[in-house]
Structure formats: structure tokens, C-alpha cells
Amino acid sequence: MDLADAIEQSVGIYSSAPTGYLSALARVPGFTLADLDEAIAARSLIRARTMRYSVYTLPPDLLALAVAATRTLATRTNPFRRRLAGDYLRLAAEVEQALAAGPLAATEIRRIVDPNKQLGNLFSILLGLMGAESRIVRATNLGGWRSNRLTYARWEDWVPGPAPAELDSETAQMVLAERYAAAYGPVTEADLRWWTGWSASESKAAAAGVDLSQQGNASDLLDGVRLLPVWDVLMVAYRDRSRLFPDALGPWYYDRLGNATSVVYDRGSIVGVWDLGKSDSPLAVKVAPTVKWSKRRWSEVEEQVQRIGAVIGSSDVSLQRDTEPVDLTTAKRNTFLAPLATM
Questions:
Q1: 143, burial (CB in 10 Å: exposed 0-12, middle 13-18, buried 19+)
Q2: 107, 139, 165: which is the final residue of a domain?
Q3: Last residue of a domain, one of 109, 143, 165
Q4: 248 and 156 both lie in a single domain
């Protein structure tokens, strides 16, 4: 199974660093950081906003389908869109003109379009809206594997294949629903609605004729024990997560907004929480079980910690055993990003 095939079978992976790298590592034997960077640079994998208005990495054809299927998410009114309304078209045209010669970093785009920084935080909203409308796309990575410093390119210059605007949204929604069920089934309409961000009526229409009870194959990529990162696609695939863990354990894995933390996965079940830490060297990975563990499980977790260390090139790697994790539903905001940082 190569990287592109694994990502297609999973119907994409989250792109935010370091989640994209860690989700790929959990699914692809022999994965290296360069594999993902090179695939992005070669445009065989593309990053863009799709399901739930989140940034996914997908092969170009599947990306176009997913973007067309979630087009309504990009046009929903929100306070940021209203604040930009009078200037959006002008600013978007200026951004596209700035990118005519090729990809640029966000700081370089801003230097051209908003040199006095009058837009404030609306500048990042501008880029986000343009991405959601398939006008621009995230291109290459400028930083390390933990960095979200990227270049941006015009969609038509960067993404091969059909543009989302050329695809019928309703047809795309039905195809995406089928791809989702084939990956994560058995599922329900509520699961589909959660995963996509669609309305109830969109989910119902898209699910018509789709066998939601079929057995999906996305989890086949997760063999044995795996350390799944924050926002891993398996953890955001379901509204009803009882197939992965007892409901009583949910507050250790999700915060009150539904954000999924980094978890230990073992043969179909979520059995613990882990924390990557902020340093590559030393790389000190903390792990806290949420059920009783055997020596075998600890040994396999150690193997996965060492695997992360090898992939990032760290020569100082350790596994630190913690006790019970925190309740994310009552913890400070964004604790899910580093669930054991204060333990």
C-alpha cells in the first residue's frame, strides 16, 4: 500500500501539521516525511478545504469531487464573510494577480495585497475563503514537519484534472457518500452528516441508494497498535463513536466542541491518550492508558514511539508512562492539542 492509495482508501487525511504526517505514518509501512512533501510538490496529492470546512489531503480527482460535494459549506454566511463582503471580490482578484507568476508564501502575498496590515486577522480569513471557493490552494511546505507555513497557488495553475465548478454538486454528494460508507461503514445518516458538515436534507439525499450498512475498509490500514494524532480521520469519521470505545470514556478523547485528541488505537479500539510534546530532540512521548494494558500493548506502543523518532530523525527518544488523562470537556480550551502536557 503506497501513500496515495492509503489516503484514497481513507477518503483523505487531515492536513494540519503534524497531523498529516502522523496520520500517514500510522497507515503506510515505510513512510517517510519526504514521501508526503514530494507527493505534494509533484501534485499527486493536494491540500484543500473540504469536509466540515477542514483542510484535507487528497488525490486531485477525489479532491475535486469532495470540494464540489461540500460547496455549500464555503458559501454559508458567517461574521468574517460579512466583514469582508464589500471588499472580498477586489481583494481576491488582487491575490490571484499576485500568484500569477507562481506560488507565494502568505507573508509575501500580504506584502503585496495588504502591505499596511489593515485587514488584521481578516487576511487569513480571505485566504481561507478563497481556498474554500477553489480560487487558491495550499501548495508546498516551507517549514518542518510540525510547521503550517505553506505557499499558496492559484487553483487552475496547481491542481490537475477537473475543477470542482465543472462537477454537479448533487452527483458529487452521492458519490462522496458512497466513498465514505465504503471506507467507514457501517454508518448512519447522522454519521455522514457529522463527517461532511452537510445539512440534514443534504445528508438524506446523498445517502439515498447508498448501502450505509456495508463494511468499510479504512481501518484495515491500521494494523495492530497505532498512535493516531489530533484530528485523525478515524476519530472524526463518526457521530456515534461507540464502536471505538465506551461512551463513558469519551471526555478523555474529545473536548466539548468535538475536537479529537491524540489517541492510542489497538485493533479496533481506542485504549489510551498520548502526547507528542514540543521537541523533536529529545522526543519524549507521554502515554496514558484509559483501560487496562498488557505488557504486549506497552511493547507495541514503544515500537510506535521509536518509529516516530526514526522517521523524524531523532536520536533521543523516550516513552513516558502517565496515569489517567484529563477530562477534555472541562479542561481549558485547546487542551486536546497536548492532552498530557500538564500531567
A1: exposed
A2: 165
A3: 165
A4: no
Task: Provide the number of structural domains found in the chain.
Answer: 2
Give me the domain span that covers residue 332. 241-337
Residues 123-135 pLDDT 10s: 988 998 898 889 9
Whether 327 is in a domain gets the answer yes
Model pTM above 0.85 = yes
Q: Are residues 157 and 248 in the same domain?
A: no
Whether 24 and 157 map to the same domain: the answer is yes
Residues 98-128: tens digit of each pLDDT: 999 999 999 999 999 999 999 998 998 899 8
